[in-house]
Design brief:
There is one protein chain. The protein contains five helices and four strands, in the order αααββαβαβ. The protein is α+β, with helices and mostly antiparallel strands and 196 residues long. The strands form two sheets. A two-stranded antiparallel ribbon has the order 1-2. A hairpin with a 6-residue loop joins strand 1 and strand 2. GO terms for molecular function: structural constituent of ribosome. This is Large ribosomal subunit protein bL32m. Keywords: Mitochondrion, Ribonucleoprotein, Ribosomal protein, Transit peptide.
Length: 196
């Protein structure tokens, strides 16, 4: 391919020289410029990992092996600071209401579950009777066999009554649904804390 291309270039150059003798200068249409540089061939290098990475990054690989003490400390903790071992709990007590065990300082899960189920039933009954509209008025829940309290008519202004078709559970007190009677304090007096 290259010898033929070179031959054609030589023919064009000779035509150009002949035309130059006739007119004194080359016409713009026949001006031809060609720069041919032979690419130098590089010898093949041996392939290495440095050619891939170069000045890039390397993965963070630990240089030293962790000792068994450090491995156990990470796994189980240290008794004086953070101890991760399974330690028997000593703060378990028995619920006075249902007899189930629970941690001291926490609610009994069994009793809380009962209250949660009863509360969801009340919420469903309120939603069934009053719909999804916002409730600006107080709601009084009455169980089967209960009568509304004898109070003046002013008490019933703006209140809604929801009746549950079952008896009130013994553990579900009426006081749970009543508002607090204690008024918030307006006092700004601060009690001293350094008195013993």
């Amino acid at each position: 391919m290259l010898p033929r291309f070179g031959y054609m270039l030589n023919v064009l150059k000779t035509i150009e020289r002949n035309v130059l003798h006739l007119f004194g200068h080359p016409p713009k249409e026949l001006a031809l410029v060609q720069i041919y540089e032979k690419q130098p061939t590089h010898p093949k290098k041996s392939f290495s990992i440095k050619d891939i990475v170069g000045d890039g990054f390397l993965l963070a690989v630990p240089k030293f092996r962790r000792t068994i003490e450090k491995r156990l400390k990470r796994k189980y903790g240290y008794p004086e600071y953070v101890w991760k071992m399974l330690v028997p709990k000593t703060n378990i007590k028995v619920c006075n209401e249902c007899g189930h065990h629970h941690e001291r300082g926490r609610l009994c899960e069994h009793c809380y579950k009962k209250v949660e189920i009863e509360t969801k039933e009340i919420q469903a009954k309120i939603q069934e009777k009053l719909g999804n509209s916002p409730i600006e008025k107080d709601v009084i829940v009455l169980y089967e066999g209960e009568n509304p309290p004898d109070t003046p008519k002013e008490f019933w202004n703006g209140k809604r009554i929801v009746e549950m078709k079952k008896e009130r559970p013994q553990w579900f007190s009426k006081n749970l649904l009543q508002k607090s009677t204690q008024q918030p304090s307006d006092s700004t007096d601060v009690k001293p804390t350094d008195l013993a």
